[in-house]
Amino acid sequence: MKDLSRPGGASTRLFPSTLLIVLLAVISCTPVSPAGGEAPAFRLEAVDGSQVGLADYQGQLVLLDFWATWCAPCHAQAEILLDIYPDYKDRGFEILSIDVEEPPDQVRSFVESKGYPYPVLLDETGEVSLGFDVLALPTLVLVDGSGEMVYHHPGITSENTLRDLIEEHLPEASPEDSAKASAEET
Q1: Before 138, cis peptide (omega within 30)?
Q2: Closest listed residue to residue 170, CA positions, set 143, 138, 133
Q3: 131 near 94, Cβ under 8 Å?
Q4: Percentage helix, strand, coil, to 5, in the chain?
Q5: Strands (E), the chain
Q6: Do 72 and 145 form a contact (C-beta atoms < 8 A)?
Q7: Order of strands across the sheet with 120-123?
C-alpha cells in the first residue's frame, strides 16, 4: 500500500485540486442574505480623473461592483448591470464599478471600449476591496441610502435577484418627485 502522508504521495498531488474544489464550494454557497453593518467610507479616482466616494451618493441606493478586466465572470455581471441600469438610474439608484488592482491605463482602455454609463473607479492598491471583504471577483455590495450594507455576494448575481433587491431597497420617492412624475405622465 502506498503511504499517502509521505511527500510526493497521492495526498500531495491531490491537495491543490481539493483545495480549489473546497474554495469554489464555499464561495458558491455564500449566502445571498444582507451583509449588515455600515459601509466603509472611501474616495477613489475614477477613470475620467474625478474623485468619487460613497458619501457623494448619500440617500441613494448604491451598488458597488468589484471586478477586473481579466475576469470573464465580471464581464457577464457587467452585461446584467448594463441591462438594469437604465431602469433605475433616475430613481435614486447608482452603480459604482470598482476595478481591483490593475493599471489605470489598462482599465481606461477597457472601459472606453465598453462605454459604461456609470462611474468606474480605480482601486489600485486593493485597500477598498479589502475594506468590503472582497475575496472573489466579481463581488456585488448593495449599500442603502443610510450607508448600511444590505447585500454582499461574491460571484454572479442574476438579473432577477438584482431587480428584486433594488426594488426592495430603493429610497421612497419624495412628495415632490411623485408630483413631478404625475405631471410628466399627463
Answers
A1: yes
A2: 143
A3: no
A4: 40, 20, 35
A5: 43-46, 51-53, 61-67, 93-100, 120-123, 139-143, 149-154
A6: no
A7: 51-53, 43-46, 120-123, 93-100, 61-67, 139-143, 149-154
Work out the angle at residue 133's Cα, subtended by the Cα atoms of residues 53 and 77, and round it to the nearest 5 degrees: 75
Closest CA to 94 of 170, 173, 178, 179: 170
Bridge partners of 151, per DSSP, are: 142
pLDDT values of the chain reduced to their tens digit, one per residue, 186 residues: 434 434 444 444 444 444 444 444 444 444 444 468 999 999 999 999 999 999 999 999 999 999 999 999 999 999 999 999 999 999 999 999 999 999 999 999 999 999 999 999 999 999 999 999 999 999 999 999 999 999 999 999 999 999 999 999 998 764 455 445 445 555
**d(Cα 90, Cα 83) in Å, to the nearest integer?**
14
**What length is written for the chain?**
186
Place of cell 405631471: 183
- As a whole number of angstroms, the distance between CA 159 and CA 162 comes to 5
137: CB partners within 8 A, 6+ apart: 66, 67, 68, 71, 73, 74, 100, 154
